[in-house]
Specification:
Layout lengths: L3 E5 L2 E6 L1 H10 L7 E3 L7 E2 L4 H11 L12 E5 L6 E5 L6 E3 L6 E3 L20 E2 L12 E2 L6 E2 L5 E3 L6 E3 L3 E5 L1 E3 L2 E2 L5 E2 L5 E2 L1 E3 L6 E2 L1 H5 L1 E9 L5 H20 L1 E5 L6 H11 L21 E6 L2 E6 L1 E8 L10 E7 L25 E6 L27 H15 L12 E5 L19 E2 L8 E3 H18 L1 H10 L3 E5 L8 E2 L5 E2 L12 H9 L5 E2 L6 E2 L2 E4 L2 E5 L6 E5 L6 E4 L2 E4 L4 H4 L19
Parallel strand pairs: 21-26, 21-27, 27-28, 28-31, 30-34, 35-40
Antiparallel strand pairs: 1-2, 1-3, 2-16, 3-4, 5-6, 7-8, 9-15, 10-11, 12-15, 12-19, 13-14, 17-18, 19-20, 22-25, 23-24, 25-26, 29-30, 32-33, 36-37, 37-38, 39-40
Helix pairs in contact: 1-2, 4-5, 6-8, 7-8
């Protein structure tokens, strides 16, 4: 059933059904010369050029005995989809109506909570005020980055522009009015009740603003988890700064700040560290707080005050057709306080980590300096080692994260999670001597001569992941087992957000000197997840190795370690990897699960640079 829009008095009005338009024409409210369209990207025509409208108007006028009922015959109608209430007379029984709330078409029928009607088809439909109404939301293709509610684009609310239109039951009396528009200007912009163009949209549940790019493009959500003091804020600031360079120089795409107001905190972190006016002075980032306007939005959901963490939203945009990026998309990050991940901290008032359940990739930051066992292998020149205040069993945080994901995704006790996980082991500069190779010497990106864009070298990351996994199994085996026992795909990636030791600040806190910053592999965890979401092209670029006698059992690849003789069990995402063990390269077999993944293929030992990451 088509929806119609008319252009009168320099305003686009609608949507209306065919019956609405026919009644307007019959009553003289519009004429045959009135401009009409069936929606965006459709041409404007006159009403007289639409034969179906003329036919409907003629049918409406005949026979006269059936045309109308008494004006006193008032009927109450309800939309069958959202229960929006209408008043009308019995002449509307059986008519198709476009609901001004949910925009769904339904048939007006007699009876409570079964149908609805417009007041009169000829009158312009007013914007719907949601002050006392919360629509029912279905699972749609849009996820709100603020409250993680799924909904359809038709359910978006617009934010009034006129300063007199304020008040919202969720955000409070000082917030601008949220409404569903029915009037539009010649540019197609929604108009509020004061006829001002409303250019910002909001979630129908939490009413918080949503960047328009979230509506128009694919969005990938990435969760950053870790204990207090693990360096999540430093990581995000360093990642953002490095991504701006890497994506442009190596992958022919750019990082766009879609909403500077929304991203203010993270942008300020980046500026403090990498664009400081005082390059030789010690700089300290503020600790992420559980509450506060800079870190959370407080809204009223179901009459309960809820603190929602502020998201950071950026757009990855292709610069040309040869870009390694598959399509323009949004990337969303969250900077939670470490306390959010503590057992018992997940509740209705502070649901700050529930983005984990809808995430497209998780980066769990493991800090060796804060681990009681691994701090012994760290460089003792690092000032952070002088304090024991933040030593914590970080495997408990991993277990808590697993429990939350299982609970919020309603997973069976033996079900494995398909979200790719990167255990990012931080502060590499303080323990780098424990790996056999220097990360600075390992190539992460291949630049084919025939392309303007590079490709991520998958095998470099997987090879290093295996060596780091071996190290972690010596000191924190429970962390490795917990991660691989729940997640189907797990990688262990070392990195350093700063590339230098911390420096004491006059306040007593530890900070960094901007001039000394030299991040190491800070983009590797995130690029791995982009590739795992099939958004970034990859290549294996790995020479063939000796074949390892291996077994494929369920989701794992099993083999005997060629040096230690221990039995090794790796997740299937190591399929066809070439691993360097004690200086010798060994090739793993193809796992069927890697081969069966739609749209992706495993990386063969002798593959060309066009192979894609599993």
């Amino acid at each position: 059933m088509s929806k119609y829009y008319i252009y009168t008095d320099d305003v686009v009005r609608g949507p209306f059904t065919l019956e609405n338009i026919a009644m307007m024409l019959s009553s003289g409210r519009i004429s045959s010369d009135t401009q009409i369209s069936t929606g965006k990207n459709t041409p404007w025509q006159t009403v007289g050029e639409r034969p179906e409208i003329r036919a409907a108007a003629i049918q409406l006028q005949q026979p006269p005995a059936e045309k109308t009922a008494s004006n006193d015959d008032e009927q109450i109608f309800y939309c069958q989809h959202c229960q929006q209430k209408y008043r009308g007379n019995s002449s509307w029984l059986g008519k198709d109506i476009v609901c001004i709330n949910c925009h769904e078409i339904f048939q007006a029928a007699n009876g409570n909570n079964t149908s609805s009607s417009t007041a009169t088809a000829a009158d312009p439909i007013e914007n719907v005020n949601f002050q006392n109404y919360m629509p029912g939301l279905e699972d749609g293709d849009i996820i709100c980055p603020n409250c993680w509610q799924r909904f359809h684009s038709e359910q978006l609310l617009y934010i009034a522009s006129h300063p007199a239109l304020t008040g919202d039951p969720v955000l409070g009396p000082g917030a601008m009015l949220r409404f569903t528009p029915t009037n539009f200007n010649a540019l197609g912009q929604a108009l509020d009740d004061m006829n001002c163009a409303a250019t910002e949209v909001a979630c129908p549940r939490c009413r918080l603003k949503i960047p328009m790019s979230i509506i128009d493009e694919v969005t990938h959500y990435f969760s950053i988890a870790g204990s207090q003091g693990s360096g999540k804020s430093y990581y995000l600031a360093s990642l953002l700064n490095s991504l701006r360079k890497t994506m442009s120089n190596d992958f022919a795409c750019t990082v766009v700040d879609v909403d500077p107001e929304l991203n203010y905190v993270l942008d300020s972190y980046e500026e403090t560290l990498f664009r400081s006016r005082h390059r030789n002075a010690v700089t300290v980032l503020p600790k992420t707080q559980l509450t506060g306007n800079d870190y959370v939005n407080m809204v009223m959901l179901d009459s309960i005050p809820v603190n929602l963490p502020k998201p950071f939203v950026y757009e990855l945009k292709q610069l040309n057709s040869s870009s390694a990026c598959k399509e323009d998309c949004n990337i969303v990050f969250y900077d939670n306080a470490g306390e959010h991940f503590q057992p018992g901290a997940d509740n209705m008032i502070n649901p700050g980590t529930r983005h984990l359940a809808c995430s497209d990739g998780i980066i769990f930051i493991f800090d060796p300096i804060n681990d009681a066992n691994m701090r012994s292998i760290c460089d003792q020149r690092e000032p952070q080692l002088q304090s024991f205040d933040r030593i914590y069993d970080q495997s408990k945080l991993m277990s808590e994260m697993v429990a939350r994901i299982r609970r919020h995704r309603n997973m069976d006790v033996d079900e494995k999670c398909s979200i790719p996980l990167v255990v990012a082991v931080s502060k590499y500069d303080s323990w780098q001597d424990n790996l056999s190779r220097d990360l600075r010497d390992l190539p992460l990106i291949d630049h084919p001569q025939s392309s303007l864009s590079g490709k991520l070298i998958k095998n470099t990351i997987v090879d290093v992941s295996f060596e780091l996994r071996e190290l972690l199994m010596q000191y924190v085996p429970e962390l490795v087992n917990s991660a691989e026992g729940f997640f189907e795909q797990v990688l262990f990636v070392p990195f350093s957000s700063l590339g230098c030791f911390s420096t004491p600040h006059e306040s007593g806190q530890l900070g960094v000197i901007p001039e000394q910053l030299s991040p190491i592999w800070v983009t590797a965890p995130f690029l791995s997840l982009l590739a795992e979401n099939d958004w970034l092209e990859t290549t294996s670029a790995a020479p063939a190795g000796l074949s390892l006698a291996s077994q494929i059992i369920d989701d794992y690849i099993l083999f005997t370690h060629p040096v230690s003789g221990k039995n090794i069990r790796l997740p299937w995402n190591y399929s066809q990897a070439v691993l360097t063990i004690n200086g010798t390269r060994y090739s793993l077999p193809l796992h069927p699960k890697a081969m069966n993944r739609p749209g992706k293929c495993s990386f063969a030992n002798n593959s060309s640079s066009d192979d894609m990451w599993v």
